[in-house]
Structure formats: structure tokens, C-alpha cells
Automatic annotation (TrEMBL):
Organism lineage string: Bacteria, Pseudomonadati, Pseudomonadota, Gammaproteobacteria, Vibrionales
The organism of origin for this protein: Vibrio caribbeanicus ATCC BAA-2122
Pfam families for this protein: Hexapep
InterPro entries, A to Z: Gamma-CA, Hexapep, Trimer_LpxA-like_sf
Protein's name according to its UniProt entry: Carbonic anhydrase
Recorded superkingdom: Bacteria
Amino acid sequence: MLRRNPSGHMPTVSKKSFVDPTAIICGKVIVEENVFIGPYAVIRADEVNEQGQMEAITIKKDTNIQDGVVIHSKAGAAVTIGERSSIAHRSIVHGPCTIGDDVFIGFNSVVFNTQIGDGCVIRHNCVVDGINLPNLFHIPPMTNIGSEEDLGNILPVTPDFVAFSASVVSANHALVKGYQKMTNEL
């Protein structure tokens, strides 16, 4: 469901993307082409800053937002999710936040007030809060990271995780095409 926010902004969604009918996209949200937004996802850009302004939540092309994901932003701050990225089931992305290209964020993870570099893999049940994560970092399952000091124990992404991330993106591209075809048949 696409909804206007109290400021009057309406989402902009590419016709080449698929939004599940149970998902809610509200306000100043931009969804580029070939994006999959799964069941019960909520993407809500409706808070304003002290000047009454807000930045957009932008989901770039070839990205997938899976079942039950919540994306929101505090005080109108921007959220940008890069190309070919995957936000897995029931994760929360809360702005201000920038997620690079080719990023995988695992099930039930929380990302807040942070920048995540290109090619990072954040596994399931992680919290990444208030840090700039450089390119190609791998955050192991159930890790909480909130300072530069925490990064000293983190290893770079391995080729296996790069391949896994690419396979998730590919599977969701097929879903976009499949669901669009079904919609056109009805």
C-alpha cells in the first residue's frame, strides 16, 4: 500500500519494481527499478526536522527489502540503501543511515545512525549503531558494534559471503519478474 504522509509526500515507486500488497510505503520514499519489497515490510518517511523538512528514504535499483523489514528515519534524516543490497527478514534500518552497494544485512539485525560501506556482510541478529563501517567488513552473527574500537576484531568479507550475497540478490530479481508476471495475468 502506498500512502501519503502528513507533509503531503507520496512515495515514488518504479513500475519495474515489485511491492507486495501487504507492504506499507509511506511518504517521501523513492524506490528505483528492479527492487523487491516483500510481505509486511514497512518503509515510512514521515518525520520532519526542526525546520519542518525531511530527506527521502531512497532504495536504489536491484535491491531487495524482505519480509517484515522496517525502514524509518528520525527527524527527517536521509536513509539511502545502495544498489544490489539485501535487507533480510525482520531487520530494522533506522536513519540517519547510509548503506552502500552490494551489502547484505541478515535476519533480525538493527542498523541505526551509521554508514555501511560497499560489500559489507552483516549477519543475523546484529546491532550496528553509530559507526562508519568501512567497505568489505564481515560482522559475525549476534555481534553488537558501536565504536571504532569494536572494529579491531572484525575480519573482512570472504569470497563465500560475496557469493552468498550475490545469490540472494539474484533470487530476488527472479521474484520481481515472477510477481510482476502474475500481477499482469490477473
